[in-house]
Design a protein that fits this description.
Layout lengths: L1 H57 L10 H6 L33 H6 L6 H7 L13 E7 L9 E8 L14 E6 L5 H12 L12 E4 L8 H6 L3 E6 L14 E5 L7 E8 L4 E4 L5 H11 L4 E2 L20 E5 L5 H14 L9 E6 L5 E4 L12 H6 L7 E8 L9 E3 L24 E3 L6 E5 L13 E3 L9 E9 L8 H11 L4
Antiparallel strand pairs: 1-2, 1-5, 2-3, 4-5, 6-7, 7-8, 8-16, 9-10, 10-11, 11-18, 12-17, 13-16, 13-18, 14-15, 14-17
């Protein structure tokens, strides 16, 4: 027994020694593992740092300003905004510039004070006059992107000539109201926008209001800095409200859109009024499409209602309008879905921002008194649901695409009583009679034609001059068929798989 105890003790001692040896070996293994891990991490950081230094040396903004930015983008070295370069030194920013781009150690007060020259040949080639207006267009600015003058400054990648508010000054040979040098250090479109906003002293857009946006002169939205600066000279449009409106230019001016209605067919977007902005498009709908809308809506027509302002509560809808209406869903209907897509590509506004089509029927002597399509928060102060739906003014109806579905021989015109005329070049007074169709601008029904009128200015503010009404149908035998297609400045609620597909299709054109 004593020998058994001694043997057990010896065996236990050996087991303990073996366990201790295993623990020591484990500690050594873990120590080696941590040491190896730390070494690998340091090597990875070193490799990443070396790669970043090499990549920046290849970046088209590095080095001389004469480097071709377009070549750099096309080679694939920088095609998106998601490739930031770490700043080693902070920028010097003016105290009143909250959005100052803190990149590359720029001394912004010095950079902004330095003189910027312009290449006159490129400026002429930009042909800004083709899009400028005889009067200011609030919230819309023309930008000419030009090459920097080599003898001027070596720290610029481009020069932007700004024609503020689209105004043609002087009328014979307009000159830019501002020249902005674009430093090579800028790396994103948001930084360029901040520079333009500060240089033009544009007011900040805070809260739920949409950020400003830059478009081609045909309404294609830019998403990256590289595409903005790639082509020179290039004519762009900055819109403060963040959504596209067709530049008015002057009454009678036509923007041409190829292949919108049919392949090989050019659509003319013709300006009918500058104040308010009204454009007209003939033959936008085919006769079959117009007939299809009428056929789909006819069984459902009911007397129209109105959203009453605080001052009008207690009044009957018939005091304002006597027409009939039906909101026609565009889902699961190939013809209506095709019209959805066409409206989006005409207005350059995503169809996700649209309501369903409101089909209207006016019989003899039926009408709709003058009104606005936007919702003024001040007029609905007691309606909390309305205020929340329009985000207290940040969200609103931007554009109305108004369809004329048949011809009317007498009456039935759409009247804009406050539209600018020779007598009232800056817009007419508030009418005394909201049923009077004798003032301002009138557009008469023509089957297949549409007009676009904008309830908001390019700045995003409400346009009081967009007041409009549907005039009496004077032909006793006629019925006027028309439709509202309302587009908001933000996404609305009526989405479908087809509409989502059209949104994606439009966004694929963004640059």
């Amino acid at each position: 027994t004593s020998s058994s105890r001694a043997m057990a003790k010896s065996t236990g001692s050996k087991a303990m020694q073996k366990a201790a040896a295993q623990r020591a070996a484990g500690r050594k293994t873990r120590k080696r593992s941590w040491s190896t891990h730390i070494t690998l991490v340091l090597l990875a950081f070193g490799a990443q740092f070396a790669y970043m230094r090499w990549w920046r040396s290849q970046w088209p903004f590095a080095g001389s300003a004469t480097t071709s930015f377009g070549e750099g983008v096309q080679s694939g070295r920088r095609t998106t905004e998601e490739q930031p370069v770490e700043n080693l030194t902070p920028s010097t920013c003016p105290l009143d510039w909250d959005a100052c781009p803190r990149v590359g150690g720029i001394n912004w007060p010095v950079a902004l004070a330095a003189e910027v020259e312009v290449d006159e040949a490129e400026l002429r080639e930009c042909n800004a006059a083709a899009l400028l207006s005889p009067e200011a267009v609030p919230g819309m600015h023309l930008l000419c992107v030009l090459s920097p003058v080599p003898s001027s400054r070596s720290d610029l990648v481009a020069t932007i000539a700004v024609f503020q508010s689209m105004e043609r000054i002087p009328s014979s040979s307009p000159r830019p109201t501002a020249l902005i040098g674009v430093p090579v250090e800028l790396s994103s479109l948001s930084q360029l926008m901040a520079l333009i906003e500060y240089r033009l002293r544009l007011p900040p857009r805070t809260g739920n209001y949409q950020p400003r946006a830059i478009f081609t002169d045909m309404g294609i939205r830019f998403k990256t800095l590289g595409r903005v600066l790639r082509t020179r000279p290039q004519r762009l449009v900055l819109i403060e409200g963040g959504q596209w409106l067709w530049p008015p230019v002057e009454v009678g001016h036509a923007h041409l859109i190829p292949d919108l209605v049919a392949p090989g067919q050019t659509t003319r977007v013709v300006t009918r009024s500058l104040k308010p902005l009204v454009v007209e498009v003939e033959d936008f709908l085919t006769s079959d499409e117009a007939a299809h809308i009428i056929e789909r809506a006819s069984p459902h027509m009911a007397k129209s209602g109105v959203a009453l302002k605080d001052a009008d509560k207690g009044k009957a809808a018939k005091e304002f309008r006597t027409s009939s209406q039906y909101f026609l869903p565009t889902t699961n209907d190939e013809i209506l879905e095709r019209i959805d897509r066409r409206v989006s590509f005409l207005t350059r506004i995503p169809i996700s921002h649209a309501e369903y089509i409101q089909v209207l029927r006016y019989n003899h002597l039926e009408h709709y008194s003058s009104h606005h399509d936007f919702f003024d928060p001040a007029a609905y102060a007691s309606n909390k649901q309305m205020l929340e739906s329009v985000e207290y003014g940040a969200k609103n109806r931007l554009a109305t695409v108004f369809f004329y579905l048949n011809n009317v021989s007498a009456g039935g015109q759409t009247n804009f009583p406050r539209a600018a005329t020779r007598e009232f070049p800056h817009g007419g007074p508030v009418p005394r009679d909201y049923f009077d169709c004798s003032q301002g601008l009138s557009v008469f029904p023509q089957s297949g034609k549409v007009i676009i009128f904008y309830s908001l200015l390019p700045s995003g503010a409400q346009d009081d001059l967009s007041l409009h009404g549907g005039c009496d149908v004077l032909d006793e035998t006629a019925t006027k068929w028309s439709a509202n297609f309302w587009l908001w400045n933000k996404p609305y609620h009526f989405l479908s798989p087809a509409r989502m597909r059209f949104v994606n299709e439009l966004e694929r054109q963004y640059l």
